[in-house]
Amino acid sequence: MRIPWTAVDRPWKRKFLGLSMLPQKDKRIRLAQQSQEKVKAKIRLITRRNAPMGMDERIQELNQYLGGWIGYFALAETPSTFQELDGWIRRRLRMCQWKQWKRVRTRVRELRALGLKELDVWEAAGSRKKYWRIAHSPPLHKAMGIAYWRGKGLMSLVERYQTIRQAW
């Protein structure tokens, strides 16, 4: 007679307080999949393209939410998850910024001001790609990278995670 699997045998299939375990022998703690989906849904709500708010206000709201969120989930032992989420957030913000610039003339002016090469400026500004796709393009990635968003005041999840983990 076969004994059915229990939660003790497969802890990576369970979630407790938004966390679960990795299915390896060392049993490290990770973010549960539902927790990742929930934070992404909240970030999508804050970074909607049609939300009538300026970039400073959007970043301030994001920092406020993510500061508390990372404080709770810093117990997780998977920094790669936070790196991926950090990159995804920056892409969402690039998408919002691109939508705000709207006209080709404005995009050219702003990309030049960010120090992009002339060929890259016109390649990006004249692109027919939609907002989400252009936000992942190399010219925009180069122009609005990590340093750009740090200058705008965006909190890095990875840096905050490492700061909290070192304090323990």
Folded structure, characterized:
- It is a single chain.
- The chain has helices at residues 33-46, 55-73, 79-101, 104-113, 118-125, 131-134, 138-143, 146-152, 157-167; strands spanning 19-21, 29-31.
- The chain has 168 residues and is mostly helical.
- It has one domain (43-167).
- Strand 1 (19-21) and strand 2 (29-31) form a beta hairpin.
- Helix 2 runs parallel beside helix 9 (157-167), helix 3 (79-101) packs antiparallel against helix 9 and helix 4 (104-113) runs antiparallel to helix 5 (118-125).
- The chain is elongated, with a radius of gyration of 20 Å.
- The model has no long low-confidence stretch (mean pLDDT 89).
What's the topology here?
Elements (H helix, E strand, L loop, with lengths): L18 E3 L7 E3 L1 H14 L8 H19 L5 H23 L2 H10 L4 H8 L5 H4 L3 H6 L2 H7 L4 H11 L1
Antiparallel strand pairs: 1-2
